[in-house]
Every structure is written in structure tokens, then in C-alpha cells.
């Protein structure tokens, strides 16, 4: 896991939103360096769409009222599931922030949160949270040690508030 003070690796990943380009719907792509240009980013990695512990985490982010009040803060959730699964997951849980697909695990690997194997699945993101500032520096990091561990959202909030 990347520690605070480390440069966060940039990435460009497809997400749950679509955009119209030349009259056709295209999958939107999200770049970390673009997001941090407008403010801090709360970046979470999770195992799978529809996994009970991951569902709790992504719904917790949805329910964090302080994220709504902090308009310059972006939130992204990343797993190795595909965009199509993400869309169904986001619709079912009314998620109002992008879920990004790291289908080959390279971004999770760059953030040092890639699990080689979990429940007979290969190259899966470990549940983790990063707060990244506008210089693309990690200011807060957390990673689950057990399957039922959950982030301390108060600590994440404090890290974000320090950046504003």
C-alpha cells in the first residue's frame, strides 16, 4: 500500500458513465491527474461488485453527506470487475459517483493493493482508501487486513478537510 507522502500513480480508466461522441455513446474515461486539478480525490479500491463487505463500503461513500458539501472533492471506486458489472451494481445501489474498471489490475498493482488470489479469483483489488491532494500526493491511506474491516470514514473526512 502506498504510504502518505508518496506520489500517487496517474491512471486513465473506463467508468460507469457514458458520453456521446460523434452521435454514439462511448464509455467515459477518468484520469486521476484531471480529477486532482479541481480538488482532492477520495480513491477506494474494492474486491468485487455485489460482495457484501464491498457493497457496504461503496454505499457508505454514497451516504457520506460531507462529500456532497465539498464540491471540489471527487470520489472514485475501483475494482477489477468490468464496466458492465459496475453499471448494474451502481444502478442497484443508486451510486452517484463513478466506479472505474481496472480490468487487468495494473492500477491496483501500482498502488500496491493487488491481491494475487482471493476466493479463487486472480489479480483482485484489496479493499483500501486513499486521499490524494492536488499535487497528486497521497495524504491518507488505509487497507483492510481482514475481510470484515471497514475504513474509518471520520479519518478520511479529517484528511480531506486538512486539504481544503
Please explain how this structure is put together.
The protein is of the alpha/beta class and 164 residues long. The chain has one domain: 3-Layer(aba) Sandwich (Glutaredoxin), CATH 3.40.30.10. It is built from six helices and nine strands, in the order ββαβααβαβαββββα. It has a five-stranded mixed β-sheet. Strands 1-2 form a two-stranded antiparallel sheet. The two termini are 24 Å apart. The mean pLDDT is 88.
What are the main properties of this structure?
164 residues, alpha/beta, Glutaredoxin, five-stranded mixed beta sheet, two-stranded antiparallel sheet, 6 helices, 9 strands, 32% strand
Under CATH at level 1, the class stands as: Alpha Beta
Q: What is the tally of helical segments? A: 6
Report the radius of gyration as a whole number of Å.
15 Å
Shape descriptor: globular
Multimeric state of these chains? single chain
Largest sheet: 5 strands, mixed
Spatial order of the strands forming the largest sheet: 5-4-3-8-9
Taken together, the total number of domains comes to 1
